[in-house]
Design brief:
- The structure is a homodimer.
- Chain A is an alpha+beta fold.
- Chain A has a domain at 10-84 and 95-168: Electron Transport, Fmn-binding Protein, Chain A (Pnp Oxidase, Chain A), CATH 2.30.110.
- Chain A is 20% helix and 35% strand.
- Chain A has five helices and twelve strands.
- In chain A, strand 6 and strand 7 (95-105) form a beta hairpin.
- The radius of gyration of chain A is 20 Å and the shape is globular.
- At the A-B interface, strand 2, strand 3, strand 6, strand 7 and helix 3 of A face strand 2, strand 3, strand 6, strand 7 and helix 3 of B.
- Strand 12 of chain A pairs antiparallel with strand 11 of chain B, so a sheet runs across the interface.
Chain lengths: 220, 220
């Protein structure tokens, strides 16, 4: 089956790379699906970061799903943002606004000299500025960590979204219809009991970088 | 490989069914992974609802991934909630607080007489009270929709979470450590241009049912 075309509702699709990147750069967690040697689906949720034309994930060298992916098993990496519930005039006409992507391919484990830099990139993507605030990872820590990369290649991904108001009814109705946006934000930092330090700029920056209201739902 | 045991960090796992149900009942979206006839991983994000000892999903009768699942292909259904970023004294000691589950099995498509009731349950799970506010689905709408069920059977699922403060450093450090909670809430409803109706109780109820602050992160 074709993996880069949508068989249903192709008008919801996009092959625009900046549109894909915008989703990948707005989310922190995806799901990594692969197939076990005995043909079973295998999936793990995982933190990720886009680095140019690739998606990076990391984990312990003991993580089974990553070892399977690093061995060359085909993977499908899924990222999804739920932006709003769409309340139609019927339940059938109700829906959700979302952005989603599935990237396919095979992953490669980065060699040690590239893994260190990639881990810094991952850390700074999750908590911008944090790498400069703490000591570098040491050899023992790096040896315990594997970093895998999935190329974002033309034709290897699909993007799909719904970003619209509730559809106009094709019948007489008194029912309300509209959107209920889903808003995700960072709460107040909670210091661990072992620290007396001030909350660092990286953590303060997370709270400052709240999603803008108009990013999360469609306005008609 | 065993599918109901965690090979890594088993202390993060739980075989407690209420713990699983609590996660399933707090989230709206999961990812449905399966394996295509040619052995490739296939994944779609999808709205879902727990109904007792099963997970329900629905979609168009044309949806390929659902047709594949309905044909008896093995599936893995993944649900994940990101609750907080965990800021350690190093990037290596940093982590995330999360709750996650993977349910495995095969899905069955519900017969027409059960599908209608299941669709109402799905709708009322997403927007509690909405079903009573609108007309019932008609025969044409029901015929265009498939509903699939995945049993939640003992031994067929794994649950894993991290719900803790940043680990205490095993070295001298001046670095800050703590949690940054991830908070998800519903925004202000946005009426569609075609409606003059008042915002209904079901939609008002979503805003009233905001996550409590202490649900979203661990307090030490």
């Amino acid at each position: 089956m074709p993996i880069d075309r949508l068989s249903r509702m192709p008008e919801r699709g996009s092959s625009d790379r900046p549109t894909l990147d915008s989703l990948l750069d707005s989310e922190l967690v995806g799901t990594l699906s692969t197939v076990s040697p005995d043909g079973e689906p295998w999936v793990v949720p995982i933190l990720f970061a886009r680095d140019g034309d690739r998606v990076l994930v990391h984990g312990s060298t003991g993580a089974g799903a990553l070892r399977l992916a690093a061995s060359g098993a085909p993977v499908a990496f899924c990222v999804m943002a739920l932006d709003a519930l769409v309340i139609g005039h019927t339940t059938f006409a109700s829906s959700a606004n979302y952005r989603s992507a599935v990237l396919r391919g095979t992953m490669t484990r980065l060699p040690a000299d590239e893994a260190s830099e990639a881990l810094d990139l991952l850390s700074d993507r999750l908590i911008p500025g944090r790498v400069a605030e703490v000591r570098p990872s040491n050899a023992r820590e790096l040896a315990a960590t594997q970093v895998l990369a999935l190329p974002i290649a033309p034709g290897s991904w699909i993007y799909k979204e719904r970003r619209a108001q509730a559809s106009s009814p094709d019948e007489q109705t008194d029912a309300w219809g509209g959107l209920v946006p889903r808003v995700t934000s960072w709460g107040v930092p909670e210091p661990a009991p072992w620290t007396d330090a001030d909350v660092p700029p990286s953590v303060l920056g997370l709270a400052a970088d709240q999603p803008r209201r108009d990013d999360t739902a469609f306005r008609q």
